[in-house]
Amino acid sequence: MKADIGISEKNTKAVADKLQVILADEYVLYTKTRNYHWNVEAPNFMELHKLFESQYEEIDEMIDDIAERIRSIGHYSTGRLQDFLSLTNLLEPNSNNKAEKQIKNLLQDHETLIKELRKCEGDFSDKFKDAGSADFVTALMEKHEKMAWMLRSYLS
Length: 156
Ligand SMILES: [Fe+2]
What we know:
Layout: H1 9-39, H2 45-72, H3 81-87, H4 99-127, H5 131-152
The structure holds fe (ii) ion.
């Protein structure tokens, strides 16, 4: 049944399409963070192992919320790995076990997502008149800003 929520079909579709890209990016960042949780090597191994775990758990919740937001505005969510890989803006570099390289790589992805989400917030509220989705992506952005700060604090 169609969602009758006071936003045009054209606008909810535009918002959903953009949310699919964010979902794909989150999926890639989740997988990368989990890979680093497994494979990091550093004198402070246990701290980074736990930090990465806390971050991929947070991203996991965000992934679920984004797919459910897409459903809430009346569209179906992508859920196939091959679709995520074709939609994402993030890159998967060769695996690396060095903590500093991993942290820099994750930080870059969080900052990419923060900039994407900031642009979404403006587009969703101004162009597509979807205040709920604008508010939703603002909350996601704040979570990435906090995770980025934590990663950045390991780098001089
Ligand atoms: Fe684990």
